[in-house]
Amino acid sequence: MDNSAPPELSTQSAFLRIQIAKVDRLMDLVGELSLGISEVINSPDLRGLELAEFANSAHRLQMLLTEMQDAAAELRQVSVGEVFRRMRRMVRELERQTGKIIVLKLIGEDTEIDKLVADRLYEPLVHVLRNCADHGLESPEERILAGKSATGTITLSAEQQGGDIRITVADDGRGLQRDKILSRARERGLMGVTEEPEDWRLWQVIFQPGFSTAEVVTNLSGRGVGMDVLNATMKSLRGHIQVNSQTGAGTQVVLSIPLSLAFLDSLVMRIGQRLFATPIDVVNEVFRPETEQLAHVSAANGAELIRVRNSLIPVCRLARFYNEDSTQLPALETQIVVVFKTTLGLIGMPVDEIFDQQQVVMKPLQGQLEAIRASHGCALLGNGEIAIVLDCEELARGVH
């Protein structure tokens, strides 16, 4: 008797459809399991006991838990190409509405992102592409006069860098109109009348609610809501935005989003009685400074700098950042300095104590806690305590 499987069964795809609610439930349970294991391992009843075998078993259990968290997070990942390909029809509609010739290039469609990110990414990307088509790309006649091809190009790309997914929207148009943006920012009181900000600071105003340089409201632009939607979405996803522009060469909008929204490999720190955490990927180095490394800038806010090898980097004191009493701050040489990598450069943050690197369960801040500046949410630690997860990009904007 031939027991071999029918050909049509052996060639079926090895995929299984699962409701996203079931995956979310699994991830919640893995998160609770993580907290439960940490509570057992860090139980006060075990302090002072010589438990060599227990320590080995606990280490193996934590390793398995980390693998389980990674596997659970992978279950919720989908190809970013599903979102990218939906943009093709929209670009064809933009061609019709603007009278421009536009080619959309897709790169890195196989890059995987969290399903929650994919679901929320479509609308913000639509706004960015509309801006590229309406404001960025010139008309065919303008492009020819500028020595360019009559066809404008918008490139949508994705790649994984460390623990982040980087999604880039780039056009080869005229670039951001610096003078126009600065003039409108001054009119709205977002910049001083005589202030001449660096480009990175000026580009931030385009994300303000209601900000627009369009003289006429159209179906595509002028209401000042598109980039505001993008900014709000990125904050809720623990991501950040970087804008680069060159006159006549185009604009690039880079969205950096964590690979997993549920779990975070973090460095946990203590400042006073408060606990804070940051993604381990943004930590550049940790050290205790020497006196010769310290420098002060004569300014009303008492800005501090610290020398790291051949560079001076700004110091971010959280007490000053949160406008708290900063008259009794400890001397820098008595603190531990954690140096973070940001798109604006390195910044240093003094802390009282460093805990071990931990993979923590992430939860959003709710109620009045949502108003905490420079925060991505909270981290539930194994000992039952809660740490605020810091947004180092926003900290950097506060000191640069």
Secondary structure layout plus pairing:
Blueprint: H1 7-10, H2 20-41, H3 52-75, E1 77-79, H4 81-98, E2 101-107, E3 112-114, H5 115-136, H6 140-145, E4 151-161, E5 164-171, H7 178-187, H8 199-203, H9 226-236, E6 240-246, E7 250-258, E8 263-271, E9 274-279, E10 283-287, E11 294-296, E12 304-308, E13 311-314, H10 318-321, E14 336-342, E15 345-351, E16 353-363, E17 375-380, E18 386-390, H11 392-399
Parallel strand pairs: 2-4, 9-18
Antiparallel strand pairs: 1-3, 4-5, 5-7, 6-7, 8-9, 8-16, 10-14, 11-12, 12-13, 14-15, 16-17, 17-18
Please tell me about this protein's structure:
By secondary structure, this protein is of the alpha+beta class. It folds into three domains: 17-76, Orthogonal Bundle (Helix Hairpins); 78-258, Heat Shock Protein 90 (2-Layer Sandwich); 263-399, OB fold (Dihydrolipoamide Acetyltransferase, E2P). It has helices spanning 7-10, 20-41, 52-75, 81-98, 115-136, 140-145, 178-187, 199-203, 226-236, 318-321, 392-399, and strands at residues 77-79, 101-107, 112-114, 151-161, 164-171, 240-246, 250-258, 263-271, 274-279, 283-287, 294-296, 304-308, 311-314, 336-342, 345-351, 353-363, 375-380, 386-390. Helix 4 packs parallel to helix 5 (115-136) and helix 5 runs antiparallel to helix 9 (226-236). The radius of gyration is 25 Å and the shape is globular.
